[in-house]
């Protein structure tokens, strides 16, 4: 048997529809501010969907020059912005207190540079394949967010990308966690980035009847509410700097939390729908709890996947009841997607940032737009108003199309957690 390395969060960053950085995102989250807006008629003229959660005012020129911005898809630009903030927050300086060969990057994306791909295909139709840009491929490949962040930082350790739809961000964090536990790196910059708001991005999800058909932004994303009718697509990025406990201690880093557990499993069931009894989602939660060596009663808050779709919210409620038993009625639950919209492959990463902030601030962000209870969904979804609560451990759930499930558990007071945790 080999000892697992303990892993802590030493830096966080995000850019979201409710804020250009983690502090503004957090402040707006606890105020219940919505980032959902009406899309332009030009963008939605042939579509039934009219709402999205766009990231307003983002300027890539704050991070790169004009030439580089033209050659960089928006999802990569967002990844760079969030990673820059996370690294600044961590105090890491490559070559000084971080060894480039022991520092890696793992960033996921569900659809990568879909806007670049769509724009390129339109140009092909108009001008032919001979006019395809040589920069098109490195703009739309999903792995290029991780690549560009690694190049920018000079990180030369393990670099990867997870592409598992809406679970991409959470699984990227979970797999980066495993890399450090195995001793293959001391530092990992990890998370997810997505910029899917374009005609083909909207049309594909709309065709599956996954998107809300509301026209009033205040009514669009309403997780767990009886009148929910689909999710609202959003864009953004979230990043964590993960470090081995020993490395963070040696350099005197400020530790935001310990990443204590990660559970991931597949469903082998359906390309889009979950098993309605919630058993597979429950299994992912059980795996994370087992990895963290915690019983369910040790969790005080769950940042739910909570997409505002008919099947998701019901299935997640059933899964939570299976895992938590009577404690399901005591644990606080909320879906921050009610404010940010659904950021697809970035959602789990942004929600990981919000979960750690909730843990540290001991404030649970609300589920806004919650007005009417669905009969079977009778748990505490923290409706409309943030709540103060003592928190020691929190769970973040992510469940994706295709049956990709990922759950993360973060704990406060890492010095109190036993150090002899074994990898069998």
Automatic annotation (TrEMBL):
Q: Which GO terms describe its molecular function?
A: 3-oxoacyl-[acyl-carrier-protein] synthase activity
Q: Tell me its EC number(s), please.
A: 2.3.1.179
Q: Which InterPro entries match?
A: 3-oxoacyl-ACP_synth-2, Beta-ketoacyl_synthase, Ketoacyl_synth_AS, Ketoacyl_synth_C, Ketoacyl_synth_N, PKS_Beta-ketoAc_synthase_dom, Thiolase-like
Q: GO CC: one term?
A: cytosol
Mention one GO biological process in which this protein takes part, according to its record.
fatty acid elongation
The reaction(s) this protein catalyses: (9Z)-hexadecenoyl-[ACP] + malonyl-[ACP] + H(+) = 3-oxo-(11Z)-octadecenoyl-[ACP] + holo-[ACP] + CO2; a fatty acyl-[ACP] + malonyl-[ACP] + H(+) = a 3-oxoacyl-[ACP] + holo-[ACP] + CO2
Record-linked SMART domains = PKS_KS
Instruction: Tell me which residues this entry annotates as catalytic.
Output: 166
Keywords for this protein? Acyltransferase, Fatty acid biosynthesis, Fatty acid metabolism, Lipid biosynthesis, Lipid metabolism, Transferase
Q: In which pathway is this protein known to take part?
A: Lipid metabolism; fatty acid biosynthesis
In this record, what's one Pfam family?
Answer: ketoacyl-synt
User: What domain of life is recorded for the organism?
Assistant: Bacteria
Ranges where the Ketosynthase family 3 (KS3) domain occurs? 4-412
Enzyme class comes to: transferase
Q: Which family does it belong to?
A: Belongs to the thiolase-like superfamily. Beta-ketoacyl-ACP synthases family.
Q: What does this gene product do? A: Involved in the type II fatty acid elongation cycle. Catalyzes the elongation of a wide range of acyl-ACP by the addition of two carbons from malonyl-ACP to an acyl acceptor. Can efficiently catalyze the conversion of palmitoleoyl-ACP (cis-hexadec-9-enoyl-ACP) to cis-vaccenoyl-ACP (cis-octadec-11-enoyl-ACP), an essential step in the thermal regulation of fatty acid composition.
Protein name as annotated: 3-oxoacyl-[acyl-carrier-protein] synthase 2
Which organism is the protein's source? Cohnella endophytica
Q: Which gene encodes it?
A: fabF
């Amino acid at each position: 048997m080999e000892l697992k390395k303990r892993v802590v969060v030493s830096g966080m960053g995000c850019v979201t529809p409710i804020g250009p950085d983690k502090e503004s995102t957090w402040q707006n989250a606890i105020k219940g501010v919505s980032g959902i807006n009406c899309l332009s008629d030009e963008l939605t003229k042939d579509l039934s969907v009219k709402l999205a959660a766009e990231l307003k005012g983002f300027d890539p020129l704050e991070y790169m020059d004009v030439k580089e911005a033209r050659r960089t898809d928006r999802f990569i630009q967002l990844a760079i912005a969030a990673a820059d903030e996370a690294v600044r927050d961590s105090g890491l300086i490559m070559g000084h207190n971080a060894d480039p060969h022991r520092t890696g990057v793992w960033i996921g994306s569900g659809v990568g540079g879909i806007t670049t791909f769509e724009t390129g295909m339109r140009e092909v139709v108009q001008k032919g394949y001979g006019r395809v840009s040589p920069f098109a491929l490195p703009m739309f490949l999903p792995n290029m967010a991780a690549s560009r962040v690694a190049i920018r930082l000079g990180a030369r350790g393990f670099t990867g990308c997870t592409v598992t739809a809406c679970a991409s961000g959470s699984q990227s964090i979970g797999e980066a966690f495993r890399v450090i536990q195995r001793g293959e790196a001391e530092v990992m910059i990890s998370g997810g980035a997505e910029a899917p708001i374009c005609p083909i991005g909207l049309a594909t999800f709309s065709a599956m009847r996954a998107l809300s058909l509301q026209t009033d932004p205040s009514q669009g994303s309403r997780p767990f509410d009886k009148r929910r009718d689909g999710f609202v697509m959003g864009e953004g990025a979230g990043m964590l700097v993960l470090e081995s406990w020993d490395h963070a201690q040696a350099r005197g880093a400020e530790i935001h939390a310990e990443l204590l557990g990660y559970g991931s499993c597949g469903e082998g069931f359906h390309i889009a729908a979950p098993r309605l009894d919630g058993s597979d989602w429950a299994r992912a939660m059980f795996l994370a709890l087992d990895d963290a060596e915690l019983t369910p009663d040790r969790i005080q808050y769950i940042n739910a996947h909570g997409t505002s779709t008919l099947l998701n919210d019901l299935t997640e409620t059933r899964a939570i009841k299976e895992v938590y038993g009577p404690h399901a009625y005591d644990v606080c639950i909320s879906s921050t997607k009610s404010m940010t919209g659904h950021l697809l492959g970035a959602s789990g990463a942004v929600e990981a940032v919000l979960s750690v902030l909730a843990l540290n601030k001991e404030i649970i962000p609300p589920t806004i737009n919650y007005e009417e209870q669905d009969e079977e969904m009778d748990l505490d979804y923290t409706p409309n108003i943030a709540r103060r609560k003592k928190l020691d451990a929190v769970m973040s759930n992510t469940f994706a199309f295709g049956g990709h499930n990922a759950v993360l558990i973060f704990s406060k007071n890492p010095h109190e957690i036993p150090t002899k945790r074994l990898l069998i």
